[in-house]
Amino acid sequence: MNDLAIRSFRYAAFLSVLFWAVVPASGQEAARRLQEANQAYQDGRFEDAIEKYEAILQEGYGSGVLHYNLGNAYYRAGQAGRAVLNYERALKWSPGDRQALQNLEAVRSGLKDALLVVPESALVYRWRVVQGLMPSDAWAGLGLVFLWAGIGGLALWLGHRVRRYKKAGFIAGWIFLGLSIFPFLFAIGRARQEFRKDYAIVMVEEAQLQVAPERESQEVLLLHEGAKVRILDAIGSWYQVRLSDTSEGWLPADVLERI
């Protein structure tokens, strides 16, 4: 991956999040630590940058920008698995983030496991970009506004005696009712992105996919660091997982980290 692909400390947006999301004193302190982490990255001290970014996350701050920068630092430090994990988390925050998507694809191209990844159509990508503009509760709130506006318009149509007001209420009512569908659909899709925890990344150099949740069972496939799996079930300290090519098996829980 070249320097153009892994570029830019996009901390301006994250700083604004910090200042608006927390009280001024704590926000300024977090912003200062973020600037220190960014400076460490620029100086080539990637392990130091990672430590500082992770400390900010441990204190409860988070954003797509922070995970994007952390993914860059892990990639530069030679930790492909954690780079993939944080680019995936960045996309969870900001589904339309083209830079994070490009960097994720670039890192995956260098992984040992060439698992099938179904390309996303232009229509689906644009839908995800719009869906990612707001959190699920904001989309739901907008949907309710449109819904009540539609109900109000139809109430005007039913209750008003003046013909032009009745006509305006009828047209506006059905328009707003129709428009309310889209925010609710965006809210449902965004909520699934925000709350689903069934995908994980292999964090160790090699992991054997087993037929059953025990070390002595038959081996299905050898997975490597950075591989993405979907968690289907759990028994004790084992996860049943599915790969993108639909292969299934069991992995020890301690080799995975959920996105």
Describe the overall structure.
By secondary structure, the chain is α+β, with helices and mostly antiparallel strands. It has three domains: 100 residues, Alpha Horseshoe (Serine Threonine Protein Phosphatase 5, Tetratricopeptide repeat); 71 residues; 60 residues, SH3 type barrels, CATH 2.30.30. The protein has nine helices and seven strands. The strands form two sheets. Strands 6-5-4-1-7 form a five-stranded antiparallel sheet. It has a two-stranded antiparallel sheet with strand order 2-3. Helix 1 runs antiparallel to helix 2, helix 3 runs antiparallel to helix 4 and helix 5 runs antiparallel to helix 6. The radius of gyration is 23 Å and the shape is globular. 29% of the residues are buried. About 2% of the residues have low confidence.
Features:
globular, alpha+beta, SH3 type barrels, 5-stranded antiparallel β-sheet, 9 helices, 3 domains, Serine Threonine Protein Phosphatase 5, Tetratricopeptide repeat, 259 residues, 7 strands, two-stranded antiparallel ribbon
